[in-house]
């Protein structure tokens, strides 16, 4: 059984017990424990079930590379799935539950999959579920989805907060082991601005656990001194519990800081995402120990040799009384020494190398431990716990020579440098034959704008594994000289072992796990190779090797070695799959940061916003703005209010807050030429003081935006855009000016927010302006489609005589800071004329009554102006404009296009929004054919009936025909095709 | 406009309107430089200059933001347009399109660094200026003062 030893555990505080729960059981641990170490201290070795076969699983590692020990943590708003127990610091009240088990962890019916494993080989889903086709959607996919997934998806809203922060530094160092610390000391002493990240709460990495001696001192002392010195340097910032998650071009790096996962009651954000621009980056990310591929290597109790030492040294936890060690290198002998020193049994060290190990091996033998060489493990005995191992010749096929009883197997297949950060931006690797590892190739680093590598690796991440070499490499990486010395015996060479025994039978290979989390075995990768998936990227996807949440940290190298072997080639020619950020999964909350809820986006408010809020505004989001949809009076429904606003505007006087309309100033000697290219109609001929309605199309001819353009002076135009189009159209103009027509002398500026704009609309519009006084707004002085600067009621204004409602209308712009005062003045002066503000819905209805199109209603990115009967706004004289050539395409000129018409319901009802007009017959899918659709539909308070606009097949040629629109839930609305202009077709009302 | 003060790790207050003019043109032209420098020194790339109540902020290769007391904007616009009439330029009052906030307190830099991708390290924080789209999607111009550290 696994247990807490009486002594030891450098990270735990035995005076501070902590209570937590696992699957509802109350358990005890100590402050400083991880969830994994605390469970092991409670003899809870069974921690979860595997993904595909639901096999019992426990920890393999003690660190970020852990594939098995994944938990659901917390509940409701604090719930999080797939948390690695090895990286979860214990706190009082922690609630953990195992994943992927049904109905319980101890007894799982899904484990029957394991019995069927010979029927679930690699590529099983692709082979099995493809026929018959309809079965996929209705039977296979729902079933697979139900059985897939490890953790549960959270259901409650996350109650934690998160934040982003931007940072800049000369040098970012990722990794707080001795290499990272030495690099930080070197660069910090040289006065460079350094940030140093360590993903755990503990500094010093493996050197401390493995008892390295640096400058004659134990590593732990050296680390403490290094931290003290770094803290005295103002130019060095160090953050613990912060992972260097990803590296991107131009020295951009992402850090993931876990601020309160270990102390959830603390104030402040839970996670912080660091967005860093670093002059240079050092990846001092260490190395990951590789498992060995032998049968039963996934049974709880089989761990990495380094992890067994970690649990002992860091948390005082023994995984079992009798540990068999199996290795192909010297490093694993440290585990035997550590276990013996703790008074635990090591029945044997199984060394696959015929010649055995070096000085460490001799030391182990001196401790009285049996060392057998040239041997391997044929298979591990046991189900939910290891009970023993069968020993065989490594060179053979797995005939068991002897059995050894044990409850732990500590394995080491060698070490792989953590090259992830080096590789994120394209750093290349080289295969080191002597050390049997991929390591960074310094000659082919990820290069920045200057052609130099902007990432350097330091320490074990570069390849060296001995303390002295690690420190020397880190010093060099940080541009220094003179590394601390280290006393360490040399090591005998590693002998690569990719399968144990090397001639393992199919039966053994199909029990030898490569990817623990995704249940990929040696036999699966071999099958993929046999079936022609020779590229490592193809084999990965076919077998799912390395595709789990651990991204194959333990499995990748072993898997591609097996693939290489099967293909009869060497490892470097197979290569690795791509390393992509993040290094380990980061929370969705950290990615979102503060951008959630009310501050997800900035909410834009016009200068009159407060008045609207105080006067019953029913809000509508438009772009980033909130606009009043209607102003509700007490007791009124929204429909009542809209109806009242329309009728009052048509009969007396309405005010619309039009401040959100985009306003872009375009000026320069070539501004007219430029606008002729941007708009479909001619803007260069517009006279100073006049306005013209214009259309903008994309290069593909589709209508993109519309608005009124005013000629301000010889070289200056003011372009109105839609509310949502202001920033987009400004960017569109700048893009063309900066990338294509850079030779045009034109400047633009977006002045949308500079002005508040009020539409003064209705038969009494002129009266109220004349009452306020200050300028001549008569039909003679300011005719329809003219503008003038002046003062009204003491305000400096610009009045545009334009109308989107069909009524007499002025749109009046004042500086934004005067907007509210001007609005108030209009309301006061307008009282005797029956003034009422109106909202966007009344605006929409009035424009629909007039047959004016609305971008986003009548257009959807597939509609050209010709579809909307806007030929009059498309210049025939111009040589070119954006969209002209596209509109010449055959499909655009087709007689069969759906075109804009008005739709008048036969009995006054309203056609449902988005309804389609049905045609005759059915299509290939058995659906009714359609011949058009509604684009805008309203009840017209003015006309007292339903009106609509729609795009109908050859619509304008079919005036008077009746078409039918089915309603959701049955029934239909019949409507007659009419002109889209329902109200005042001759424009007599707006032109007075 | 109302002035709001928020209690938190920093003091945040909205300042009265400041006069602001967008000037676009060839920043290397002597005539343009002369017109700008009657009020305030020409700023280097990415910097801001100040002279009395006036300041000039570099916005892009062909754009400056000129700041002045709000009541002087109209006359400034006229003077600039007259001075630049022979060259291609744009001069536009944008005072009312901007809000000005004051952030005060020892943690001011950290608050800004949560929003703005701008290098705020001590030492570099001497009249820095940067036009940047921040996390909230708004353009911000930082017109800072060197603080205690």
Care to describe what's here?
The complex is a heterodimer of chains A (992) and B (149). In chain A, helix 14 (522-530) crosses helix 15. Chain A contains 26 helices and 51 strands. By secondary structure, chain A is of the alpha+beta class. The relative contact order of chain A is 0.07. Chain B has 149 residues and is an alpha+beta fold. Chain B contains 3 helices and 10 strands; from the N terminus they run E-E-E-H-E-E-E-H-E-E-H-E-E. The radius of gyration of chain B is 16 Å and the shape is globular. The N and C termini of chain B lie far apart (33 Å). The model of chain B has no long low-confidence stretch (mean pLDDT 82). Classes of the chains: A alpha+beta (992), B alpha+beta (149). Chain A binds chain B through residues 163-168, 193, 275, 277, 593-595, 599, 601-602, 624, 665, 667-669, 745, 747-749, 751-755, 815-818, and chain B through 1, 17, 22, 24-25, 62, 88-90, 92-98, 110, 113-114, 116-121, 135-138.
């Amino acid at each position: 059984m696994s247990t807490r030893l009486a002594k030891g555990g450098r990270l735990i505080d035995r005076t501070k017990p902590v209570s937590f729960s696992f699957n509802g059981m109350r358990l005890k641990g100590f402050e400083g424990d991880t969830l994994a170490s605390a469970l092991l201290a409670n003899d809870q070795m069974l921690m979860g079930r595997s993904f595909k076969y639901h096999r019992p699983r426990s920890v393999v590692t003690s660190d970020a590379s852990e594939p098995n020990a994944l938990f659901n943590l917390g509940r409701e708003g604090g719930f999080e799935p797939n948390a690695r127990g090895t990286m979860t610091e214990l706190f009082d009240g922690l609630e953990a539950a195992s994943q992927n088990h049904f109905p319980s962890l101890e007894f799982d019916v899904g484990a029957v999959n394991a019995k069927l494993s010979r029927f679930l080989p690699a590529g099983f889903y692709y082979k099995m579920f493809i026929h018959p086709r309809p079965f996929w959607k209705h039977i296979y996919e729902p079933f697979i989805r139900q059985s897939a997934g490890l953790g549960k998806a959270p259901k409650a809203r996350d109650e934690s907060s998160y934040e982003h922060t931007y940072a800049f530094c000369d040098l970012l160092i990722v990794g707080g082991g001795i290499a990272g610390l030495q690099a930080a000391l070197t660069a910090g002493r040289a006065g460079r601005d350094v940030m140093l990240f360590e993903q755990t709460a503990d500094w010093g990495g493996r050197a401390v656990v493995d008892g390295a001696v640096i400058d004659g001192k134990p590593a732990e002392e050296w680390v403490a001194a290094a931290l003290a010195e770094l803290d005295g340097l103002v130019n060095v910032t160090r953050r613990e519990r912060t992972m260097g998650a990803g590296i991107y071009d131009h020295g951009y790096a992402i850090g993931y800081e876990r601020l309160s996962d270990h102390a959830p009651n603390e104030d402040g954000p839970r996670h912080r995402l660091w967005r860093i621009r670093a002059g240079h980056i050092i990846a001092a990310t260490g190395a990951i120990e590789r498992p060995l591929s032998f049968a039963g290597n996934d049974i709880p109790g089989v761990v990495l040799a380094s992890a067994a030492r970690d649990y002992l040294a860091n948390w005082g936890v023994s995984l079992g009384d009798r540990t068999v060690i199996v290795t192909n290198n010297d490093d694993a002998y440290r585990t035997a020494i550590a276990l013996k020193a703790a008074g635990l049994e090591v029945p044997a060290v199984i060394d696959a190398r015929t010649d055995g190990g070096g000085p460490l091996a001799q030391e182990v033998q001196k401790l009285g431990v049996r060392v057998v060489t040239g041997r391997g493990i044929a298979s591990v005995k046991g189900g939910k716990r290891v009970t023993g191992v069968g020993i065989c010749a490594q060179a053979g096929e797995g005939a068991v020579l002897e059995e050894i009883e044990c409850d732990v197997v500590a394995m080491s297949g060698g070490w792989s440098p953590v090259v992830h950060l080096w590789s994120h931006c394209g750093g290349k690797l080289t295969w080191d034959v002597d050390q049997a590892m991929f390591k960074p190739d310094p000659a082919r680093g990820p290069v920045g704008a200057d052609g130099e590598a902007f990432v350097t690796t330091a320490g074990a991440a570069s390849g060296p594994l001995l303390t002295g070499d690690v420190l020397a490499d880190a010093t060099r990486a940080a541009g220094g000289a003179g590394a601390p010395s280290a006393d360490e015996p040399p090591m005998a060479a590693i002998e690569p072992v990719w399968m144990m025994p090397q001639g393992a039978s199919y039966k053994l290979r199909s029990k030898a796990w490569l990817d623990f989390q995704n249940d990929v075995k040696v036999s699966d990768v071999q099958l993929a190779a046999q079936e022609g998936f020779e590229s490592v990227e193809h084999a990965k996807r076919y077998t799912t090797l390395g595709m789990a949440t651990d991204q194959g940290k333990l499995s990748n190298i072993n898997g591609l070695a097996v693939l290489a072997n099967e293909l009869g080639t060497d490892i470097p020619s197979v290569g690795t799959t791509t390393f992509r950020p993040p290094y380990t999964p980061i929370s969705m909350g950290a990615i979102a940061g503060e951008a959630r809820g009310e501050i997800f986006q900035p909410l834009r408010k016009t200068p009159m916003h407060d008045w609207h809020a105080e006067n019953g505004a029913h809000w509508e989001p438009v772009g980033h703005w909130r606009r009043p949809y209607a102003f509700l009076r007490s007791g009124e429904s929204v429909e009542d209010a809209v109806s009242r606003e329309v009728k009052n505007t048509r009969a007396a006087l309405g005010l619309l807050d039009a401040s959100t309309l985009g306003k872009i100033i375009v000026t320069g000697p070539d501004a007219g030429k430029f606008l002729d290219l941007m708009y479909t109609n001619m803007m260069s001929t517009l006279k100073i003081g006049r306005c013209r309605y214009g259309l903008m199309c994309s290069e593909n001819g589709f209508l993109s935006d519309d608005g009124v353009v005013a000629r301000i002076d010889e070289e200056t135009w003011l372009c109105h855009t839609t509310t949502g189009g202001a920033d987009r159209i400004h960017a569109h103009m700048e893009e063309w000016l900066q990338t294509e027509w850079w030779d045009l002398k034109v400047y633009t500026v977006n002045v949308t927010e500079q002005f508040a704009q009020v539409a003064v609309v209705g038969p009494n519009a002129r009266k109220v302006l004349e009452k306020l006084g200050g300028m001549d707004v008569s039909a003679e002085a300011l005719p329809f489609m003219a503008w003038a600067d002046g003062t009204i009621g003491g305000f400096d204004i610009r009045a545009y005589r334009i109308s989107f409602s069909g009524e007499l209308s002025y749109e009046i712009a004042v500086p934004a800071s005067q907007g509210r005062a001007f609005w108030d003045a209009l309301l006061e002066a307008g009282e005797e004329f029956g003034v009422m503000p109106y909202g966007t819905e009344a605006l929409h209805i009035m424009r629909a009554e007039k047959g004016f199109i609305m971008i986003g209603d009548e257009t959807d990115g597939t509609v050209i102006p010709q579809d909307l009967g806007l030929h009059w706004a498309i210049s025939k004289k111009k040589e070119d404009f954006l969209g002209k050539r596209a509109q010449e395409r055959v499909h655009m000129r087709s007689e069969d296009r759906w075109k804009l018409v008005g739709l008048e319901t036969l009995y006054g009802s309203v056609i449902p929004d988005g309804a389609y007009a049905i045609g005759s017959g059915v299509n290939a899918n058995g659906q009714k054919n359609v011949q058009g659709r509604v684009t805008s539909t309203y009840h017209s308070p003015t006309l007292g009936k339903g009106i609509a606009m729609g795009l109908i097949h050859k619509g304008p040629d079919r005036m008077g025909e009746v078409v039918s629109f089915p309603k959701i839930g049955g029934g239909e609305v019949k409507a007659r095709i009419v002109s889209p202009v329902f109200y005042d077709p001759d424009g007599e009302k707006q032109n007075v | 406009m109302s002035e709001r003060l928020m209690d938190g790790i920093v003091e945040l207050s909205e300042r009265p309107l400041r006069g602001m003019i967008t000037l676009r043109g060839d920043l290397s032209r002597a005539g343009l430089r002369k017109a700008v420098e009657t009020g305030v020194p020409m700023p280097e790339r990415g910097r801001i200059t100040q002279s009395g109540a006036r300041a000039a902020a570099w916005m892009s290769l062909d754009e400056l933001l000129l700041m002045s007391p709000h009541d002087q904007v109209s006359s400034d616009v006229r003077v600039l347009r007259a001075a630049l009439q022979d060259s291609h330029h744009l001069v536009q009052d944008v005072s009312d399109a901007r809000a000005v906030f004051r952030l005060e307190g020892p943690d001011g830099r950290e608050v800004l660094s949560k929003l703005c991708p701008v290098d705020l390290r001590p030492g570099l924080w001497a009249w820095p200026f940067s036009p940047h789209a921040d996390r909230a999607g708004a353009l911000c111009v930082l017109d800072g003062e060197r603080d205690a550290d």
